[in-house]
Design brief:
Elements lengths: L2 H17 L1 H4 L7 E2 L5 E2 L5 H6 L4 H5 L22 E3 L1 E2 L4 H13 L4 E5 L2 H4 L23 H7 L9 E5 L4 H14 L9 E4 L3 H7 L6 H18 L3 E2 L1 E4 L1 H6 L3 H21 L4 H4 L3 E6 L5 H21 L13 E4 L12 H16 L3 E3 L12 H17 L13 H23 L3 H6 L2 H18 L29 H15 L2 H16 L9 H9 L4 H12 L9
Parallel strand pairs: 3-12, 4-5, 5-6, 6-7, 7-8, 9-10, 10-11, 11-12
Antiparallel strand pairs: 1-2
């Protein structure tokens, strides 16, 4: 557009505002803004984009082309729908086998493993520290024997396996590899994602085991091994969802997820690993909250743009695949509630629409009864059905990036990009992510965001229908709430004892000794720990045994107090 056209638009807007001044006084609030603090104007026009220096080809472009604002493939959902997953895990391998088969029958095409707390912290069910927690918040899946039971009759050539394991992630991926070999699958075709983002554990979630240095080494080893042997595997899921669940606003959420990914890449590249080998192995877990519908869409579009530019300009990536930000959009638990719990179905649906409009590669919606405990199978299946309705009944999947060109969406995408980039520069200026963990900057940032949100909620500015708005005096509860059988812990302890009786324990000891030997070596490209861990897992060594060896070498992380 030329200057005259912009002047005409601005004149028309000034006239419109003058003519409707009386009407504007009736607006619900004097000022409107996003949760992250960005003020919102009444209306957006091409002039607002011009103020941003908006350049269509440079900032948006076409789908599947740099900087991937409009999506990472030319066809997006016209070619293949997003992966429909459901984070789930019932207490035992046998329970999960039944649950996961039901999910597949309902149309799920991803098994997304939720481990119990002892497994995530590297403890077997028979460890005294596991008492009372075995199978309580997920599956107790501790050995290759357990994987064989859990995946009996499930073809992992057709179903991708994702897992949230983090500190012991190398053990989880090793189990996936060993199972694939048993099923005769070429590792080059193995599909999956492992959440091995240990930095976010120090920042928000707390399920860490080892100090940051050795933990970063494990992530780099995993990225390198999978990049070389498993090109369809995303070895590291860098997370922003957990920081958001702790209270981080949308800007800080995305900045922390990207900063962690850039730190992992930096560490790996400094060890001599080619960025184009490891960068395609990244996947990002971010929230998609129905409360900030357009904010969520804009932040994911901005995230793709920033990732592409940093990989190209800072890390000198050459392959297009290295610059594509693959997004797993998870509907966070902060936006589902016990009060009037069936309204959670609507929240999940809105979150799913936002994630689809933002171009996510995978979507995971919270089941309506999750606030009461582990979701029931009925609620999990309902959550999968909601995604199928969005994908197959709305037309959302028929056009690539249908919101592109919206004056508001493009302005907001650019505004989010600017704010996220500024926060990334702040983190870099303070010495990087690890330094910001050590000095408490990230913890304080998240706490401040959470405090601001809570004050807004208590003041009625952050509306949650049924919770602080249109409340009900009648308490509603599901007719059925899933609870782990208290006998599970005893069963799992007996299963571990039986395994240790039946396996070749001399081979296990030798394999564990080799894991220790590699762990004692300085981190380097040719000292990758994955082959030793795979060998130990193949001998039926347990996650607890492998992590105990690593604890012996590296010790455990003791978090200092910052608040």
């Amino acid at each position: 557009m030329n200057d005259r056209e912009f002047q005409d638009i601005e004149s028309a807007r000034e006239r419109w505002e003058a003519e409707n001044a009386e009407e504007f006084r009736k607006e619900r609030k004097r000022e409107f803004s996003l949760d992250c603090g960005i003020p919102l104007r009444r209306v957006y026009t091409p002039v607002d984009l011009a103020e941003k220096g908006f350049d269509y080809l440079k900032d948006v472009g076409l789908p599947g082309e740099y900087p991937y604002t409009r999506g990472i493939s030319p066809t997006m959902y016209r070619g293949e729908l997003w992966r429909i997953s459901q984070y789930s895990g019932h207490p035992t391998p046998e329970d999960c086998n039944r649950l996961w088969k039901a999910q597949i029958s309902a149309g799920g095409n991803v098994i997304y493993i939720a481990y119990d707390l002892p497994s995530q912290l590297g403890y077997d069910p028979d460890n005294p520290r596991a008492e009372g927690e075995v199978g309580r918040v997920g599956v107790s899946l501790t050995s290759q024997r357990d994987w064989e039971i859990a995946f009996d009759g499930i073809d992992i050539a057709k179903v991708a396996v994702f897992q949230v394991f983090n500190a012991p992630a190398v053990v989880g991926v090793a189990n996936h590899i060993c199972l694939a070999k048993k099923q005769g699958l070429d590792l080059k075709n193995l599909q999956g994602v492992c959440q091995s983002d240990i930095l976010k554990e120090y920042e928000a979630r707390g399920n860490y085991i080892f100090p940051p240095g050795p933990s970063m080494r494990l992530v780099a080893d995993l990225l390198s091994y999978c990049g070389q042997h498993m090109p369809n595997y995303q070895a590291t899921q860098a997370c922003a969802l957990h920081q958001a669940e702790m209270g981080a606003n949308a800007i800080h959420e995305v900045a922390l997820g990207l900063a962690s990914a850039f730190e992992y890449i930096k560490v790996a590249v400094e060890r001599g690993i080619d960025v184009d080998i490891i960068a395609p192995g990244f996947n990002f877990l971010v929230t998609c909250d129905p409360q900030g519908f357009f904010e969520e869409i804009a932040k994911l579009r901005a995230m793709r743009r920033i990732f592409a530019r940093v990989l190209k300009e800072r890390f000198k990536a050459k392959r297009p695949e290295s610059m594509k930000c693959k997004i797993y959009a998870g509907h966070g638990g902060m936006s589902v509630h016990r009060e009037q719990y069936l309204t959670n179905i609507a929240r999940a649906g809105i979150a799913g629409v936002a994630a689809a409009l933002a171009g996510a590669q995978q979507i995971d919606l919270r089941p309506y009864d999750e606030q009461f405990g582990i979701p029931t199978k009925e609620a999990i299946i309902n959550s999968i059905r909601v995604q199928h309705i969005i994908a197959r009944e709305t037309g959302i999947a028929d056009t690539v990036d249908p919101l592109a060109g919206s004056y508001f969406v493009e302005w907001l995408t650019s505004e989010m990009e600017k704010a996220i980039t500024k926060e990334l520069e702040t983190i870099d200026g303070l010495g990087g992510v690890v330094k910001c963990i050590e000095n408490g900057y990230i913890k304080r940032m998240i706490a401040q965001d959470a405090y601001k949100w809570q004050r807004g909620f208590e003041a009625g500015e952050m509306i949650r229908v049924g919770v602080n708005y249109f409340t009900s005096e009648v308490e509603e509860k599901p007719a059925q709430v899933y609870r782990a059988d208290p006998r599970v812990e005893k069963q799992r302890i007996e299963a571990i004892k039986q395994l240790k009786k039946e396996r070749a324990n001399k081979k296990v000891k030798k394999a564990l000794d080799e894991v220790k030997e590699v762990a004692l070596m300085d981190p380097a490209g040719d000292n990758n720990i994955m082959p030793a861990v795979i060998q130990a897992v193949d001998c039926y060594a347990t996650v607890g045994e492998i992590c105990d060896v690593l604890r012996e070498v590296w010790g455990e992380y003791d978090e200092p107090s910052f608040l």
